[in-house]
Specification:
337 residues, alpha+beta, 60s Ribosomal Protein L30, Chain: A, Phosphoribosyl-aminoimidazole Synthetase, Chain A, domain 2, 7-stranded mixed β-sheet, 36% helix, 23% strand, binds magnesium ion
Length: 337
Amino acid sequence: MAKSLRELGEGGVISIFREAASSDGLGPGMAIGDDCAVFQPAPGQQSLISTDMLVEGVHFRKDTISARDLGWKALAVSISDIAAMGGTPRAAFLALGLPAWADSTLVHELKTGLMDCARAYGARLVGGDTVSTPGSLLLCTTLLGEVPGGMALLRSGARPGDLVYLGGVVGDSAAGLFLLSAQDPVPGTENFAPLLRAHQRPQPQVELGRLLASAGLASAAIDLSDGLLSDLGQICQESGVGARIDLEALPLSRQAMDLAGRVGRDPLDWAVSGGEDYVLLFTVPPASEKRMLSLCRREMGLRPSRVGEIRSEPGLSARRGAAWRRVVPAGFDHFRP
Ligand SMILES: [Mg+2]
């Protein structure tokens, strides 16, 4: 029987997470229970720190994601930021805001999803906080990671002539959200499970980020959270450059194209401005391109897609067909709905 928050109390919520969080091998101070966690990066490593917030009604709705997937996603989005810097995730913190309707089943499901994600990527839950909220469910994750000293991938390193690459398909997450939010049932939904999974259980590209950083092959990188053009725009802004994107070169999944065809949508809209794909976008100097491709194939069996080029003129332009046209980054902005 599910217990109410009143029956559970703050201690009850914490113990649900504490029982599941093991501190094996992390050393003293790296388990839930002290006022702070003690974090010591390995010799020669620098710390990476990232924080992300997921708020009900802003980032998700209860009817489009299960509590278990939400637990996974809350940590996965932070892991993706560590991946974008070329790092390895280590220690996670969860701040949890629970509204009155929450109960022990919800807390258990959130914990299970979060722990599944932590285990899959080798991170440990080492602390957090829990509060009651007057309305929305809220999860804020903070993640500490490590990267070899001086090797972190930054947004500011792209140079004119560098090639723009994507580590995986784009648009699946937005296509999945379209399906989940559709008013009328879409026929053949059972074929679209990968789209739902992309939206509800994103798989951050930690291995790819680490490979690019340790081999010194990428000049800049970012993970796609707000949308392809918007996130590429961030690299351009930080690097003081512009970029061209060949829309016909964007890697789309068969399922996203199939769904778009059935519902009369343009799959490129999902790919360009949908967001939440959590694949890596990175830039590669032409001299490193061959080595990057062969290393990705050999080490990961992965074939990143070349989708554009960094230019010295500021701004973004895109091609679909023959003509290049200026485009304005469209993506999610919290303060411009
Ligand atoms: Mg990011």
